[in-house]
Amino acid sequence: MKRKNLDRRRFLLGGLGLGGALALGGCGRLAASRTGQNALQAGDDATQFVQRLLMTPQTLAPEFPASAISASFYANGTTDPGEADYKALAANQFADYRLKVGGLVTTPFEISLSELRALPSRTQITRHDCVEGWSAIGQWTGAPLHLLLERAGLKPEARYVLFRCFDTMDSDSLDTPRPHYYETVDLVDAYHPQTILAYDMGGAALGVPHGAPLRLRVERQLGYKMPKYLKSIEVIDSFAAVDGGKGGYWEDQGYDWYAGI
Ligand SMILES: Nc1nc2c(c(=O)[nH]1)N[C@H]1C(S)=C(S)[C@@H](COP(=O)(O)O)O[C@H]1N2
Ligand SMILES: [Mo]
Known about the structure:
Blueprint: H1 3-23, H2 26-33, H3 39-54, H4 84-91, E1 98-103, E2 109-112, H5 113-118, E3 122-129, E4 135-144, H6 145-152, E5 160-168, E6 180-186, H7 187-190, E7 196-201, E8 204-205, E9 215-217, E10 230-236, H8 249-252
Helix pairs in contact: 1-2, 1-3
Bound molecules: the ligand Nc1nc2c(c(=O)[nH]1)N[C@H]1C(S)=C(S)[C@@H](COP(=O)(O)O)O[C@H]1N2 and molybdenum atom (MO).
């Protein structure tokens, strides 16, 4: 995260403070009354709460001119999945790739890359901020996620979208299997106009290091909220029963679920 964002975050939290949150009434009381939360979780909730107050659901993340695109864009985390199912798809330039869309929807479906490319697209030049302290500006093109959700039709119980990836990560112990990378976002972020399933970066097909054939862009959040190597998207009502129960691979290791910047 950049210094500026840290300052902004501190400003937001400092400006409101716990007293402020309580003074806001119902929602503040609800947030403060939850028991058993650790300080990290409380801070996470407060940031989400303040950001949701200050930004309308559709506020856009800053976009930049082409001249601002970074000369190099670091690839982080998994950069070349070794899993057999992924390698088989990659060997065939992802011609057989199908994104699965299901869960709490009326019409589950699968969609190929050429079908995704035939949908209306959005191109955006945005800054990617990794929690580890680096940033890069890149251009992303993809299908708005809301188009797929509208096609699938959400059931009334729908609350989150779960993204499952092909790549596996380190596990804490030798006894537990290596978990797959996964992430979740709420429906506000899922329907945000800059939330896209990106298949192009810098005007060319997304390379393997950056998540080929498809990765999520959620521009108002940190890098780890943007899963690469997407295998499926699943509409769910709760992520408590998914893997470590915290809503994402990095969240299960202690990172904030709402990684707003
Ligand atoms: N499937 C998957 N998605 C992932 C990761 C990963 O290891 N696996 N790393 C995350 C992190 S921490 C960051 S900063 C970005 C990095 O994206 P990039 O490689 O395009 O820079 O991807 C995110 N999405
Ligand atoms: Mo990251």
